[in-house]
Specification:
- The chain is α+β, with helices and mostly antiparallel strands.
- It has one domain (about 5-110).
- It is about 30% helix and about 35% strand.
- It has helices spanning about 65-80, 90-110, and strands at about 5-15, 25-35, 40-55, 85-90.
- It has a 4-stranded antiparallel β-sheet.
- A hairpin with a 3-residue loop joins strand 2 (about 25-35) and strand 3.
- The radius of gyration is 23 Å and the shape is rod-shaped.
- About 10% of the residues are buried.
């Protein structure tokens, strides 16, 4: 099956207070999902976000966001420009396609004779 990985497209340091340890050292990162398979590589339009406290190492989930964190998140979310969703085929796909076309062509030639 296809391997999925998240590629970071934007990171920002926030100076808002952490809801857990009240330190002002948060990191906001936006990631986009990339899928890689044997026949294709694709970039999806799915963008995910994550806020982590650099001091205590906890993930800050939207339930515990303060108004300041939410305001900063919305600001940076507007600045994120994800890569265009694309799909590219690997050389194995093109080889298999050419072999299939050749097999069909040979079959048609034998049927016509």
């Amino acid at each position: 099956m296809a391997n999925e990985k998240l590629v970071v497209i934007k990171e920002a340091d926030l100076t808002n207070n952490c809801p857990e340890c009240f330190n002002q050292d948060l990191k906001l990162s936006f990631s986009q999902k990339h899928k890689q398979g044997k026949l294709f590589n694709s970039i999806t339009n799915e963008v995910s976000s994550k806020i982590v406290c650099n001091k205590c190492g906890t993930d800050i989930y939207p339930v515990s966001w303060t108004e300041d964190i939410e305001r900063s998140f919305k600001y940076y979310q507007k600045m994120v420009v994800p890569h265009r969703g694309t799909i590219t085929f690997t050389s194995l796909f093109w080889i298999l396609t050419l072999v299939a076309i050749a097999v069909v062509a040979v079959g048609v030639v034998f049927l016509l004779q």
